[in-house]
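Action item from last week, closing it out:
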Amino acid sequence: MNIGIFGTGGVARAIAAKLVSLGHNVTLGTRNVEETKSRSKGDAMGNVSFQEWIGKNASVKVATYADAAAFGELLVNATSGMGSLSALTSAGEKNLSGKVMIDISNPLDFSKGFPPSLSVSNTDSIGEQIQRAFPSLKVVKALNTLSNPLMVNPSLVNNGDHSLPICGNDADAKKKVIALLNTFGWKAENILDMGDITNARGTEAYLLLWVRMFGILQTPMFQFKIVR
């Protein structure tokens, strides 16, 4: 499958590498292709420079947001939550129309340092804002409640026995996303369909707890499990 990913950070790279390993064709979308390709410094999260990463993942293409959107049969939003609407607007509605998009973004606001606050909360979410802005896009919120190594390899914690909430308005779109997540190693019984896209308010707000636990545990390698 041809898959377009918006973003070039750690989440986008983890998803891209996993998809390539599964036989998919991947294009990363960015605002400035040449500037992105020339980045020679690692980031604060310990990721190597983009220049080094793309050199080791040469099958992954880098293009504008619009070209990545046009390329993808399925799309992934791995941009920062505060930049998501701008990136998708650059992608163009005609390139998004009718497609399924996994939205991994979170509205984390680090403008006042750590721990962050949320730029959108309570009565709205980034997932909902995207769905309203692009009504023909089939938005499925998923993978935004855990670190990127676990997104693509859930077995790294508790042998994969932990919960993954997803939500979205289109039932068929969620089925397609679940089928892809199964190929990542996510077991069907651990994927929790929360319902429509308004439930993104809850999964995005969970990040306020996630970052606090990260600070206490000093590792991102954890996830919750629903027990009943």
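Closing note: Residues 2-217 form a domain with the Rossmann fold fold (CATH 3.40.50.720).
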